[in-house]
UniProtKB/TrEMBL annotation:
<dbReference type="InterPro" id="IPR016155">
    <property type="entry name" value="Mopterin_synth/thiamin_S_b"/>
</dbReference>
<dbReference type="InterPro" id="IPR003749">
    <property type="entry name" value="ThiS/MoaD-like"/>
</dbReference>
<dbReference type="InterPro" id="IPR052045">
    <property type="entry name" value="Sulfur_Carrier/Prot_Modifier"/>
</dbReference>
<protein>
    <submittedName>
        <fullName>Sulfur carrier protein ThiS</fullName>
    </submittedName>
</protein>
<dbReference type="InterPro" id="IPR012675">
    <property type="entry name" value="Beta-grasp_dom_sf"/>
</dbReference>
<dbReference type="Pfam" id="PF02597">
    <property type="entry name" value="ThiS"/>
</dbReference>
């Protein structure tokens, strides 16, 4: 599986795109395997044991739910929430 990351996840992987040996079934499984290999990504993707609601995942360019099936040859994109800033008046 090819995983492309954005924002602070790049500091966790050291690269924009990384390979991941994926043996699971769902997007949620892929996130769990990704954070097992790149544990520094965990606080950006998880709040405790739950995936943060602000995390956006696409599979082969299409937005995907956590329970969606995903294959080992998929292209996964992970986008954590952008935090900070304020509205201008």
């Amino acid at each position: 599986m090819q995983v492309t990351v954005y924002g602070p996840l790049r500091s966790a992987t050291g690269e924009k795109t990384v390979g991941l040996e994926f043996t699971g079934v769902t997007v949620s499984d892929a996130l769990a395997e990704f954070t097992a290999v790149y544990p520094r990504a965990t606080p950006y993707l998880y709040d405790g044991d739950e995936v943060r609601s602000s995390v956006r995942v696409t599979v082969n360019g299409e937005r995907a739910a956590l329970e969606a099936p995903v294959s080992n040859d998929a292209e996964l994109t992970l986008m954590p929430a952008v935090q900070g800033g304020s509205a201008a008046s």
